[in-house]
UniProtKB/TrEMBL annotation:
Keyword Transmembrane helix: yes
Xref: InterPro entries: Colicin-V_CvpA
Transmembrane region(s): 6-22, 69-92, 104-129
Gene Ontology CC: membrane
Keywords from the UniProt entry: Membrane, Transmembrane, Transmembrane helix
GO biological process: toxin biosynthetic process
Pfam families attached to this UniProt entry: Colicin_V (PF02674)
Predominant localisation class: membrane
Organism of provenance: Anaerostipes hadrus
Name this polypeptide is given: Colicin V production protein
Membrane topology, as annotated: Multi-pass membrane protein
Subcellular location: Membrane
Length: 178
């Protein structure tokens, strides 16, 4: 079972690299930035637009959940508007990649970014696999990790797990010093 999961991880990394190559670094980075900005703008702006929604949608006025419904409508509306605006900006900025010389470098850098993104996602999945014995899933963990040296190595040397353990140790020491 572990070999199958490792093969799936390998295929996933290859797909991420292909997607990154096709998109290019510029479009991938702008797309990531647009999602971050979209969530930030929707989070900050929804409280303001909530009042406008309450005033203009008579069906939700006077109900118990008026604030929540209005906030959700404002949040989703802002997300849609932001994504539309950012997609136009990304399309315009992506025209720069058609300049000779820039296109190939952009695509290779996009493939590298895809490899990094895929690796990060695999690290998160492996981290959750490493938690399985701690939540009563010992037999499933043994099926996944047992018999595959590559999978065992991935679980034992996962940088994400090591960073979390290190942070827990630091926080524990701070608490003990108080």
């Amino acid at each position: 079972m572990g070999e199958i999961i490792v093969a799936v991880f390998g295929i996933y990394l290859i797909l991420q690299m292909i997607i990154g190559y096709r998109r290019g670094l510029i479009k991938s980075m702008l797309n990531l930035a647009s999602w971050i900005l979209t969530f930030a703008i929707a989070y900050k702006g929804a409280a303001y637009f909530k009042e406008i929604v309450i005033q203009n949608v008579p069906e939700i006025q006077g109900t118990i959940v008026t604030d929540r419904i209005a906030y959700m409508i404002a949040y989703m509306g802002l997300m849609i508007v932001c994504k539309i605006i950012f997609s136009v900006v990304i399309r315009l900025a992506n025209k720069v990649t058609r300049v000779p010389g820039v296109g190939f470098i952009n695509k290779v850098a996009g493939a590298a970014l895809g490899l990094i993104k895929g690796s990060l996602i695999i690290m998160v999945v492996v981290f959750f696999i490493s938690l399985m014995p701690h939540v009563g899933m010992e037999s499933e963990y043994a099926q996944i990790v047992g018999g595959s040296e590559v999978m065992q190595t991935m679980v034992e040397t996962n940088p994400l797990e090591q960073m979390i353990k290190q942070q827990i140790q630091i926080e524990t020491q701070k608490l003990l010093q108080q």
